[in-house]
Design a protein that fits this description.
Order of helices and strands: HHHHHHEEEE
Structural class: mainly alpha
Shape: rod-shaped
Mean pLDDT: 66
Largest sheet: 2 strands, antiparallel
Number of helices: 6
Strand order of the largest sheet: 1-4
Distance between the termini: 108 Å
Strand content: under 5%
Low-confidence stretches: 1-25, 48-53, 61-81, 256-272, 278-287, 289-298, 337-363
Keywords: Coiled coil
């Protein structure tokens, strides 16, 4: 708040305030004293002859003076120093008028200075108010910045947790990738081995096909030889019927098998017995029929027929084994997966060709 202006009252000044002027107003007081010098000398009456002449006074100066000269406001000044009753009665009016004028000038200067100080004070108070307002605004902004800082810290913590989780996921994915890479390499090696096994089986199948073709050629040759013999047509017809029945049994047996091991075990255990039983039945039937037809033939011809019949039975058994092996191996080779075991066959020739199949574990 602005200070209230001071009234033009000399009584408000204290006893020592008149002597507390700054050096800026000293020149003004000196100029005022010089201007009133002639005025005081004109008003001063001539000295009386009856009175004793007083010592000559020095001209009065206003304000502060340098050195040891007396000030009009000090106790040693000629204006304010105690005088004798004669001096007071003679120069009272002149001294009072000079002091009043000097005080009025000083008061006016002090009032001007006071008004200037009041204006400066008002400006300072306005600046202070603006600073207080700016300070409150800055405090509000600081509070907002603190809130934003807290939110950013929370977001930073959340992002750190997410980064940690993503790092864990990346580590797990890296482990899975390494596992899949190793599995892929192992599968590639297995595929290469399976391809080799497949080529080997293809060669074996081609070899069995060649053997089967040769056996068929031999069988056809034997059939022609048997037909050329007496009663050979009936024997060839019975052999062909037996071959068809054996093939039907082979197909039914292959449908019931579940794996390649079952195939080889059941084929070696049951099919050979069935083939031999059928061959014996055919042989006995053909022999009885041949005996009834050729009962009057000589013994040499009978022995020849029996020898041909036995040879025919052996060839039929071998051919049935080969056909059964080929019929069962062909679909199984294509249906087996790459990771299953490998089945191999070995061809052994002892007198007549025969190709038995033995199960073997996968490589």
């Amino acid at each position: 708040m602005m200070a209230e202006p001071v009234e033009d009252d000399v009584s408000l000044l204290g006893a020592q305030e008149a002597t507390e002027h700054t050096l800026d107003y000293t020149t003004e007081y000196l100029a005022a004293a010089a201007a009133t010098k002639d005025y005081r000398s004109a008003l001063r009456p001539p000295p009386l002859s009856t009175q004793q002449s007083r010592p000559e006074r020095k001209p009065m100066t206003a304000g502060r003076v340098s050195g040891g000269s007396a000030s009009p406001y000090s106790s040693t000044s000629p204006v304010t120093s105690p005088r004798t009753p004669a001096e007071l009665s003679a120069n009272y009016n002149i001294d009072a008028s000079g002091s009043t004028y000097a005080l009025q000038v000083a008061l006016r200067n002090m009032k001007d200075r006071y008004h200037k100080l009041q204006k400066k004070m008002a400006l300072i108070e306005d600046d202070n108010q603006r600073l207080i307002t700016g300070k409150s605004e800055l405090f509000g902004e600081i509070g907002k910045l603190q809130e934003n800082s807290i939110k950013l810290r929370e977001k930073n913590l959340q992002l750190n947790h997410e980064i940690h989780a993503k790092h864990q996921e990346c580590c797990s994915l890296k482990e899975k990738f390494s596992t899949l890479t190793s599995e892929n390499m192992s599968l590639t090696r297995q595929m290469a081995r399976t391809s080799q096994d497949n080529r080997r089986l293809s060669k074996q199948v081609n070899h069995l096909n060649d053997v089967n073709r040769k056996l068929k050629e031999k069988l056809s040759l034997i059939a022609t030889q048997v037909k050329a013999l007496p009663g050979g047509a009936v024997l060839a017809a019975s052999a062909s019927d037996f071959t068809v029945a054996s093939k039907t049994k082979m197909h039914s047996t292959s449908d019931e098998l579940d794996s390649f091991e079952d195939l080889t075990s059941k084929f070696q255990a049951t099919h050979r017995d069935n083939t031999l039983e059928g061959s014996e039945e055919v042989g006995s039937h053909d022999l009885r029929h041949s005996e009834s037809v050729w009962s009057s033939t000589p013994s040499e011809e009978e022995q020849t027929v029996q020898t041909a019949t036995r040879r025919m039975k052996d060839l039929l058994a071998c051919l049935q084994d080969q056909n059964h092996s080929l019929l069962l191996l062909s679909p199984l080779i294509h249906s087996l997966p790459h990771s299953t075991g490998l089945q191999r066959g070995s061809c052994e020739t002892s007198g007549e060709p025969s190709i038995p199949l033995t199960p073997r574990d996968g490589m």
